[in-house]
Amino acid sequence: MLCQYITFKKKKRKEENLSRDKGSSRSRLLNGIMAEEPVNVNGFRELARQTLPKMYYDFFTGGAEDQYTLKENEEAFHRITIQPKILVDMSSIDLSTMVLGYSISMPVMIAPTSRHKLANPSGEIATARAASTCNTIMVLSISSTCTLEEVAACCNAVRFFQLCVYKRRDITAKLVQRAENNGYKAIVLTGDSPRHGRREADIKNKIIIQELKNVEGLLSTKIVTDKGSNLDALANQTRDPSFTWEDIGWLKSITKLPILIKGVLTHEDALKALEVGAAGIIVSNHGGRQLDYCPPTISVLEEVVHAVGGKVPVFLDGGVRRGTDIFKAMALGAQAVLVGRPVLYGLAAKGENGVRRVLEMLKEELELTMALSGCSNVKEITRSHVRTKHDWQLLSLL
């Protein structure tokens, strides 16, 4: 009887363990599979949410004030439809793209975003290595948590350096010279940030950022504030709000590198960019983090493209989350897009491999979109492949 009882207890315990394992597997299946093995960029966002402290997740995902522009950057893509061409030979598809004379594997680059070490201890070095593996361009933020020298030394790749002009022009000049000496191929001048946008999540979370690695030893960034977050005070103490179009001549005088101007949203500013000799334009609203209620970037892309008239390349950032978004931007005239938050989600979730996978996902989605739309290379993506809300309104009048 005792042996039978022991055998019964062992059998029952084994059944309970199996049941618990099945329950655990089912729980992972129901609650975590998207996060464990993301199938799209939004899956990486969810995994980043689970991984990061709330303060850092909010810092990366948040926008200015009501976050209207932040939301519209994505929503505006949804209002554009794709018009496919059928019965086209799609046996070979080429996504390679030229940017300022450099060949990259796809029309997707990494936008400048700050403080990658808040997402992963390897910071911008991991991001740069992923960009190199995927043969694309990373734009390193001036507010990076790895120095521009460290990023330059970590891998062999084409990279650009993003610049906000400081009140102390000598510091700005030193940063530009360091970028040039370390092999950066272009300067991306951010023009939409004379002051820091009001990001209310950061204020509520009382996020304090002290580290600006690229200006260590050049500028004190120890800011004391009673406003919760020190980001506004830090930006306002360091950046030059008096910098204008006329000052770009000074910037051009201190470097041989081409200058791309980031933050253009209007026909008028596109023409000014041409007048000052910009090598390219990035249609951007700073990811909805600066001026709220300014237009989503995809909605003004065509206006800027028409103003430029093919004289310089036009790029776009803001709201790109799918290969279809990239396709739509290119159909409306962008030579390539830049992605910011998706890269940070991948970095937070899985480090360098996460960034690489995000880039691969976007490339795979774009390739499929091209195949189903009848485009065997990026040059075949034309205006006739999309219809905007304005197009539909015109068609309704016919």
Automatic annotation (TrEMBL):
<feature type="binding site">
    <location>
        <begin position="317"/>
        <end position="321"/>
    </location>
    <ligand>
        <name>FMN</name>
    </ligand>
</feature>
<dbReference type="InterPro" id="IPR012133">
    <property type="entry name" value="Alpha-hydoxy_acid_DH_FMN"/>
</dbReference>
<feature type="binding site">
    <location>
        <position position="286"/>
    </location>
    <ligand>
        <name>glyoxylate</name>
    </ligand>
</feature>
<dbReference type="GO" id="GO:0005777">
    <property type="term" value="C:peroxisome"/>
</dbReference>
<feature type="binding site">
    <location>
        <position position="262"/>
    </location>
    <ligand>
        <name>FMN</name>
    </ligand>
</feature>
<dbReference type="GO" id="GO:0010181">
    <property type="term" value="F:FMN binding"/>
</dbReference>
<dbReference type="GO" id="GO:0003973">
    <property type="term" value="F:(S)-2-hydroxy-acid oxidase activity"/>
</dbReference>
<keyword id="KW-0576">Peroxisome</keyword>
<protein>
    <recommendedName>
        <fullName>(S)-2-hydroxy-acid oxidase</fullName>
        <ecNumber>1.1.3.15</ecNumber>
    </recommendedName>
</protein>
<feature type="binding site">
    <location>
        <position position="284"/>
    </location>
    <ligand>
        <name>FMN</name>
    </ligand>
</feature>
<keyword id="KW-0288">FMN</keyword>
<feature type="binding site">
    <location>
        <position position="199"/>
    </location>
    <ligand>
        <name>glyoxylate</name>
    </ligand>
</feature>
<dbReference type="GO" id="GO:0042742">
    <property type="term" value="P:defense response to bacterium"/>
</dbReference>
<feature type="binding site">
    <location>
        <begin position="340"/>
        <end position="341"/>
    </location>
    <ligand>
        <name>FMN</name>
    </ligand>
</feature>
<feature type="binding site">
    <location>
        <position position="190"/>
    </location>
    <ligand>
        <name>FMN</name>
    </ligand>
</feature>
<feature type="binding site">
    <location>
        <position position="162"/>
    </location>
    <ligand>
        <name>FMN</name>
    </ligand>
</feature>
<feature type="binding site">
    <location>
        <position position="141"/>
    </location>
    <ligand>
        <name>FMN</name>
    </ligand>
</feature>
<feature type="domain" description="FMN hydroxy acid dehydrogenase">
    <location>
        <begin position="33"/>
        <end position="391"/>
    </location>
</feature>
<comment type="similarity">
    <text>Belongs to the FMN-dependent alpha-hydroxy acid dehydrogenase family.</text>
</comment>
<dbReference type="InterPro" id="IPR000262">
    <property type="entry name" value="FMN-dep_DH"/>
</dbReference>
<dbReference type="InterPro" id="IPR008259">
    <property type="entry name" value="FMN_hydac_DH_AS"/>
</dbReference>
<feature type="binding site">
    <location>
        <position position="289"/>
    </location>
    <ligand>
        <name>glyoxylate</name>
    </ligand>
</feature>
<dbReference type="Pfam" id="PF01070">
    <property type="entry name" value="FMN_dh"/>
</dbReference>
<keyword id="KW-0285">Flavoprotein</keyword>
<dbReference type="InterPro" id="IPR037396">
    <property type="entry name" value="FMN_HAD"/>
</dbReference>
<dbReference type="InterPro" id="IPR013785">
    <property type="entry name" value="Aldolase_TIM"/>
</dbReference>
<dbReference type="GO" id="GO:0050665">
    <property type="term" value="P:hydrogen peroxide biosynthetic process"/>
</dbReference>
<feature type="active site" description="Proton acceptor">
    <location>
        <position position="286"/>
    </location>
</feature>
<keyword id="KW-0560">Oxidoreductase</keyword>
